[in-house]
Amino acid sequence: MTQTAQTRTPIATVDDGSRLSDLILELQEKGLAVKGPLERRPGGAGPSDAGMIWVEGTPVTVPVDAAYVASTPYSLESEDSGHGIYRDGVRLASATPAGRPRFYDLETADGTPYWKLALMHLDSLASTVLQTCAYWGTDDQCKFCGIGVSLASGNTVKVKRPEQLAEVAVAARDLDGAVDITLTTGSTWGKDRGAYYVSKCGHAMKEASGLPVEVQFEPPTDLAVIDKVHSLGIDSLGIHVESFDPQVLAHVAPPKARTGIERYFETWEYAVERFGEGQVSTYVILGMGEDPQLTIEGCKRAIDIGVYPFIVPLRPVPGSLMGDSVPPSRAYTESIARQVAPELVKRGLTADKVSAGCARCQACSALGSLERTIQLGMPSLPVRSAS
Asked: Sign of the C-alpha dihedral, residues 232, 185, 59, 83?
């Protein structure tokens, strides 16, 4: 039987940035037990097993379906008015679970449900425009990726057309308050690596809805591709190295390792010159066996050239090659994030200045809340060992 806040022992809710970041770090390590309906992102090319909630008004995604979540001490509970997050019967924070977006009930003229074309990630509309990848099913398949799992599930379509996505963008803006658009794609063998098509889709969506757009793709073989992307009115880029540790990268993402970390830096510098500082970001996944010092050094170097390193703990995708992994400890993630967040604030590359995309949203990371803690001059907990 669901208990209400009146039958538990409440404590003060999360009322400052430091306590909120602590809670986010805990939830993203241990997950959240959920008894009622909650919008989820079960598969995809990026962080998955993502239960979507607002914690004290802050967007957060947390593991909810993985096997290890069965032992979490955290739960989402119904209250007399709204919901709360509890640990062992003690109320920690208010919470609002994301409900089913209204635009999901619509479909295109050819009968394709809108939800098979794009999904709401809290306040961001997101889509993988090509649900196939040149590396999937080969020795080069990225071990953390679930792009093919989503396609096999029947919950998406192989190719999303620009005109379809434009239609969905308007509906998501008008019916569900979408504030930006995040588009990714499976990699192609072309010199653009899929950048042209994902940007064409982004252009159509922005023209129709007026929403800012981030597109994500691998470094193209010809950097002039980025000029074409810029000419289409795209606001932000995600060019994701995933790890600054070459040995780890070679193991989990062989094609990215062959591209080479230095090529990522060359591509980022070129992109920053066109899109501006803070409008180019890279995923940095923690918990894959990487050297923490190499990770911190790589993040700082990226920040120095105006690139936002979006630090996220590994979120294992069920059905992927790393589906049986678990997220890194909160202490490990925190030890790195607390050394990167001050550098972002000092450089003026904070999340609130990013136009669109994952670094704008911040739901999959505690970096944004740590930045706010620093900006507000709140006391910070000491950095923990990265062991």
From this structure: positive
Contact call for residues 219 and 263 (beta carbons, < 8 A) = yes
List, for residues 16-25, the tens digit of each pLDDT value.
Answer: 445 888 999 9
Please answer whether residues 287 and 252 qualify as being in contact, where contact means their C-beta atoms are separated by less than 8 angstroms: no
Q: Taking the model in full, what pTM does it have?
A: 0.89
Residue found under tokens 């079960």: 42
DSSP H helices in 2-137? 17-30
Element (H, E) at 308: strand 307-313
The C-alpha atoms of residue 33 and residue 27 are separated, in whole angstroms, by 10
What phi, psi does 185 have (nearest 5°)?
-155, 150
In the three-class reduction of DSSP (H, G, I as helix; E, B as strand; rest coil), residue 73 is classed as: coil
Q: By C-alpha distance, which of 303, 232, 227 is closest to 265?
A: 303
* DSSP string computed for 118-179: -EEETTEEEEESB---TTTTSTT--TT-BHHHHHHHTSS-SB--HHHHHHHHHHHHHHH---
Give the amino acid at 78: S
Q: What is the mean pLDDT of residues 26-53?
A: 71
Cα dihedral 306, 312, 318, 320 sign: positive
- Tokens in use for 206? 């922005």
Distance of CA 59 to the CA centre of its chain: 11
Q: Which of 180, 182, 237 is nearest to 212 (CA)?
A: 180
Q: Other CB atoms closer than 10 Å to residue 387's CB: what's the count?
A: 8
CA terminus-to-terminus distance, the chain: 40
Identity of the amino acid at 223: L
Paired residues of 311 in beta bridges? 284
User: Rg for the chain (alpha carbons), in Å?
Assistant: 20
